[in-house]
């Protein structure tokens, strides 16, 4: 059995930027139909889509770098973690009351984002492990 190849941090950031852009487009252009389907507030969906646009831009810029600064990778990873937490806490605290389709939407996208964050954290850890032991390493 061959081990699966690990994706680089840059590749994962590019994938994250692409999915972030796609979700931003979906949420901003189709907030009303998604709201009707999920019983999530349309202004929340639209606002979330708008927030994702600069985030995707930041990710895309970092993905193009030869060496991604550790701080930038950590910002993305922690931001993804925050997105997951908010996605689940909003309905759990009854700030929104989605129907079954809404719960499915929130949970599935939270799982996808959590998976990306985990993969990015592992890639960052791998890149830190390959650095010279004497290097204080501002980049990964």
For the sheet with most strands, the description reads: none
Helix content: over 70%
* End-to-end distance: 30 Å
- Supply the number of helical segments: 5
Q: List segments where confidence is low: pLDDT < 50 over at least 5 consecutive residues.
A: 132-137
- State the total count of DSSP E strands: 0
Helix/strand/pairing category: mainly alpha
Give Rg in angstroms. Answer: 17 Å
Beta-strand share of residues: under 5%
Based on Cα principal axes, name the global outline. Answer: elongated
pLDDT averaged residue by residue: 92
> What does the oligomeric state look like here?
single chain
Describe the protein:
The protein has helices at 9-29, 31-38, 42-63, 70-92, 100-129. With 140 residues, the protein is mainly α. The longest helix has 30 residues, at 100-129. The protein starts with 8 loop residues before the first helix and ends in an 11-residue tail after the last helix. Mean pLDDT is 92; it is low at 132-137.
Give the arrangement of secondary structure elements.
Layout lengths: L8 H21 L1 H8 L3 H22 L6 H23 L7 H30 L11
Helix pairs in contact: 1-3, 1-5, 2-3, 4-5
What labels would you give this structure?
mainly alpha, elongated, 140 residues
């Amino acid at each position: 059995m061959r081990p699966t190849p690990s994706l680089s941090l840059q590749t994962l950031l590019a994938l994250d930027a692409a999915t972030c852009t796609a979700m931003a487009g979906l949420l901003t252009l189709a907030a009303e139909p998604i709201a009707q389907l999920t019983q999530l507030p349309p202004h929340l969906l639209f606002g979330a889509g708008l927030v994702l646009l600069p985030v995707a831009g930041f990710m895309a810029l970092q993905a193009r770098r030869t060496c991604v600064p550790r701080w930038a990778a950590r910002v993305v990873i922690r931001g993804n973690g925050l997105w997951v937490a908010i996605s689940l806490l909003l309905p759990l605290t009854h700030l929104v009351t989605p129907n079954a389709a809404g719960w499915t939407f929130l949970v599935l996208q939270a799982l996808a984002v959590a998976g990306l964050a985990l993969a990015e954290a592992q890639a960052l850890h791998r890149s830190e492990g390959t650095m010279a032991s004497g290097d204080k390493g501002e980049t990964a």
